[in-house]
């Protein structure tokens, strides 16, 4: 049964709500038959308390976390990483192209070629507690527990999606969002809007059963992504 803080996606996979409702999500993946888990994304700086409560709701303790993976260095994904690393003792992993931003606690610039990006730049990139990155991820890397790294640069230089092969859950980070409707990341929020629309295409080639968004509810339809991209990216 779904818990207000934790929603099962598939065997060994859950979505944790770091705000009320599915509008900013952290994901938990079980590693094999034991209690050990990997966390994917950490929410805003104030999210760790809810993340830890979500872990408790599925019977996991902070000490069960063996790795924290951050899809990209924006405050709503990396903001809670430092606190969760301290609370769990788990190392933080991030794609190498976003490491400098995570260490500085400030996201990359927004795309100045778009009007929205220039407006966002004037509003500020958003800061967060610097992240103690222990591992630099690379495209195609296979992590313990069945997570497969898919580089999808554009939203940020080091943005990644993650396929949990045992469950078929594909975490798309912010390459795609499902707020009101499924859509590619808005141009105003991208570091390189054109590149984002190029790299997101590779996700349509990934065999999956559940499409999991950082922003919005998941979609349990392996064909939904390909159908969307065929119409959205013509």
Assign the CATH class: Alpha Beta
Spell out the CATH superfamily: Ribonuclease Z/Hydroxyacylglutathione hydrolase-like
Tell the overall outline. Answer: globular
- Per CATH, the architecture is 4-Layer Sandwich
Give, in spatial order, the strands making up the sheet with the most strands.
1-2-3-4-5-6-7
In whole angstroms, the N-to-C terminal distance is 40 Å
Task: Quickly count the domains.
Answer: 1
Protein name: Beta-lactamase domain protein
InterPro entries: Metallo-B-lactamas, NDM-1-like, RibonucZ/Hydroxyglut_hydro
Pfam family, one: Lactamase_B
What does this structure look like?
There is one protein chain. The protein has about 230 residues and is α/β, with parallel strands linked by helices. The chain has one domain: 4-Layer Sandwich (Metallo-beta-lactamase, Chain A), CATH 3.60.15. The protein has seven helices and 14 strands. The protein is globular.
